[in-house]
Amino acid sequence: MQPDIGEDLKGTAWAFRGYNVTNLGRTPELLEHAAYGPIVERHLKDASELYSAATMQRVDLVKRVRLREETTLETYGEAICLIIAAERAQLEILREMYGVEFEAARLAVGYSLGEVSALVATGVYSLEALLTPILSLSSDCVELARNTRMGIVFSRGPAIDVQSIEKLCVEVTARNQGTICISSYLAPNSVLVLGQERSLDLFKDEIKSRYKREIHVKENPDRWPPIHTAIVRQKAVPDRASVMLETVPGGFQAPSIPIISAITGTDSYNDFNSRQILYDWVDHPQKLWSVIERLLASDIQRIIHLGPEPNIIPATLKRLSMNVTAQLSQRNLASLGMRAVSSIVHRRPWLSHYLSKNAALLRAPLLEQIVLEDWLLENNPN
Questions:
Q1: How far is CA 170 from CA 162, 178, 230, 334, in A?
Q2: 3-state helix/strand/coil string of 256-286
């Protein structure tokens, strides 16, 4: 039996997904659904019109979804519109058919593009205000992606000295073989890097010689727009985006529920600073691990993942949950029961103060995760 999403939303967080190499998810099934289909179709049409207005190119997202045509790097702008349209449709379906109000939840998070969706959902900006500059510059991001490769830098043992990895990126970039930067801090033992031309190969060689077998680099075979890195500065994307954002409507109210930003790592949005945070969003790395820590340190018991085929946030939380459970088992603490451990950590602030600042991570196995597109297709509206 599926959980009742409408129960105790004060203990719930919304998680908006970002761009991926696959972006359809179960949106075709939602579009074909007798009850949900009209809502999904309307949002796809609205997003198609925004895309056409911003790029002067015609697109039909409804047709793409019906034909189950997956997006590619060449259709990066369409993928952006598809993801946000799916997220907005899912929220409207929840409200109209299940009586679930977005603002009743405790907070929201978003990875990469997901933070843009969160700002729209919380009423800080309209969809048109934020999508227009992003779509206008998307072709430049695609062009920069053509010679950019992704590497996952990880350790199977101790935490990575992130500052040493940042330093190595600067050193390799200075060799004039392409820029390489950290694009996301995934966990204490893993980061993502994006590198142009030969920079990733040079980076991997240096990792091998300096760290022997302590740190590893696995290359991702796909090409990725180098958003959240200094690479986008080569086409002045941050400054051009900033100039566009200066005059878009909105941005003068705080989010209707707090947003934990993956740029600042905190719920730092107020009634005027969103433009500055979005400026940093373009070329600063994502602090995903800081977001995870904040989530677990809050009083949420459940996280609802929005959008088609959510990936990185649910995967990170699942992996953390497995690691915590395994660690407790090794230390013979599992017999206490996870709820008892969570109670010790979470309900006694004085004790929590004296424990490690990461003690809240013990709550990871207790956090309920719901993928909304799955939930909607496994339930029938009243």
A1: 13, 11, 11, 43
A2: CCCEECCCCCCCCCCCCCHHHHHHHHHHCCE
Residues 6+ away with beta carbon under 8 Å from 264: 277, 280, 287
Q: Where are the domains of the chain?
A: 9-125+250-309+367-377, 146-230
What's this model's pTM, rounded to 2 decimal places?
0.91
pLDDT in tens, 189-205: 999 999 999 999 999 99
Q: Which CATH class is domain 9-125+250-309+367-377?
A: alpha beta
Residue type, 366: L
Phi-psi region for residue 360, left (φ > 0), alpha (ψ -120 to 50) or beta?
Answer: alpha
Residue 50's alpha-carbon distances to 114, 140, 247, in angstroms, are 18, 18, 18
Please name the helix (run of DSSP H) or strand (run of DSSP E) that holds residue 371, with its range, or none. Answer: strand 368-371
Question: Are the CB atoms for 179 and 196 separated by under 8 Å?
Answer: yes
Fold exhibited by the domain 146-230: Alpha-Beta Plaits (3.30.70)
SS3 187: strand
Instruction: Kindly give the pairing relationship between strand 107-110 and strand 148-154.
Output: unpaired
Report the C-alpha gap between 77 and 52 in whole angstroms: 10
Around 27, how many Cα atoms within 13 Å sit in the side-chain half-sphere? 37
Residue 350: pLDDT above 60?
A: no
Residue whose structure tokens are 């409408």:
6
pLDDT tens digits, 57-86:
999 999 999 999 999 999 999 999 999 999
Output the CA–CA distances (angstroms, integers) from residue 138 to 93, 135, 278, in the order listed: 29, 5, 15
pLDDT over threshold 80, residue 342: no
Determine which helix (DSSP H) or strand (DSSP E) holds 340, and give its type and residue range. Answer: helix 338-346
Most confident range (mean pLDDT) of 205-219, 258-272, 331-345 is 258-272
